[in-house]
Amino acid sequence: MSTKFMKSAAVLGTATLASLLLVACGSKTADKAADSGSSESKELTLYVEDQYKAFAESAAQAYEKEAGVKVTIKTGDQMGGLDNLSLDNQSGKAADVMMAPYDRVGSLGKDGQLSEVKLSDGAKTDDKTKSLVTAADGKVYGAPAVIESLVLYYNKDLIKEAPKTFAELEELAKDSKYAFAGEDGKTTAFLADWTNFYYAYGLLAGNGGYVFGQNGKDPKDIGLANEGAITAINYAKTWYEKWPKGMQDTEGAPNLIQTQFQEGKTAAIIDGPWKAQAFKDAKVNYSVATIPTLPNGKNYETFGGGKAWIIPSSTKNLEAAQKFVDFLVSTEEQKAFYDKTNEIPANTEARSYAEGKNDELTTAVIKQFQNAQPMPNIPQMSAVWDPAKTMLFEAVSGKKDAKTAANDAVTLIKETIKQKFGE
Fold first, then answer.
1. Residue pair 78/99 in contact by the 8 Å Cβ criterion
2. What is the pLDDT of residue 37?
3. Rounded to two decimals, what is the model's pTM?
4. What is residue 99's DSSP assignment?
């Protein structure tokens, strides 16, 4: 996966606000039916990041041979392309097909920046991935391409097998070999960036917390200060009492975690599939597994994420673009996508093909995704990230008790939603 996704989570509020400001003068053609447009079109443009260029060129060549349609590949920054989509739709410069993280799909669709997409039978979409591309109004604005989830990385030189429960991680923390130099009583046996809401959400959700009700579609129902969420935050605090002070540095913690793991001072960490290459490059003898079960015996319910193929609303070739998207999410092309990128296909048949490769990272992501919750893709999600981050920091650092921090966060989220969206 591109690290752009995780970067997007941090700047989502700004990016989404920018798109909302732009939409006042943007195109409002998203309600066009995906079966309109010219079926005579013999040319399309596909915009992807450089990492997908090899797949895109191969797919374009195969599609031209199959359908007689020439596909021109353009490459660039994914998030930048999405942030510019309103202006590009107005000027007619938008590509016919692009890729977007699921958390942007519903918002861009509601803003009028995307055409509706019909999910073909060949896409082999399951309910969870369909939810990720479906807006609150029930309209579908993308075709699922990739699934992603956080996983557990562990150092095989330090522990023989993956911890199955958080109780096992707590036992590891008692081992003096993981003592953090310079800070008495502190351990790096297990580390997780729990002041980052994306990483901490699985802890909250596994205890009964949630962002929005109705599977992430009801912004009036916020579950970040319920009893389960507060239990989870207090549990996180018990770890921060064991961890080095640097773990409370919301900017520096990710680097501390990566460095400790790569230097063989940490047995297990929670992180995403996008970190695998760095660990390979650092020659860490690591393996990957699902995240251990929580103290309550429940699963760590991470956000289910990934990316979808989308069709900008300004396309002049809507029917042709829809047919090309159908081609891209077909089982054979999704298999090819996995072979070229090692990213997990959303297509369930191609996902089984990927799992059959017996790649530990692939298997762990697929299994973890089964317990994941679809990340809310409504525009109001932009109001959640910063207050949730502050909530976690204030609670684990002791600035506020968990209940106060959670209630304050929910109050701020509600006020921000009312200010931005009039709800």
1. yes
2. 42
3. 0.87
4. E
In the chain, DSSP finds a helix count (H) and a strand count (E) of 18, 13
- 3-class SS of residue 345: strand
Residue partners of 126: CB distance under 8 A and separation at least 6: 348
With the C-alpha atoms ordered 121, 123, 129, 131, is the resulting torsion angle positive or negative?
negative
> How many Å apart are CA 291 and CA 300, to the nearest integer?
6
Q: Which two tokens stand for residue 167?
A: 């109780």
Other C-beta atoms lying within 10 Å of the C-beta of residue 39: 11
Q: Burial code of 272-287, b = ≥16 C-beta within 10 A, e = fewer?
A: bbebbeebeeeebebb
Secondary structure element (H or E) that encloses residue 360, with its range: helix 360-370
Locus of tokens 């490459």: 75
**Residue 199 tokens, joined:** 């990483």
Beta strands in 263-302 (DSSP E): 268-271, 286-289
Which residues of the chain carry a pLDDT beneath 70? 1-41, 423
Q: Which residues, including other chains, have CB under 8 Å from residue 418's CB and lie 6 or more apart? A: none
Q: Where are the beta strands (DSSP E) in 256-409?
A: 268-271, 286-289, 303-310, 344-345, 373-374
Q: How far is 168 from 404, CA to CA, in rounded Å?
A: 30
User: What is the average pLDDT score of the chain?
Assistant: 91
> Which residues, 6+ apart, have CB-to-CB distance to 135 below 8 Å?
105, 106, 109, 110, 141, 377, 378
Cα 222 to Cα 209, 228, 412: the distances in Å are 9, 13, 11
State how far the Cα of 271 lies from the Cα of 277, in Å rounded to an integer: 12
pLDDT at 42: 80
Beta bridge partners of 381: none
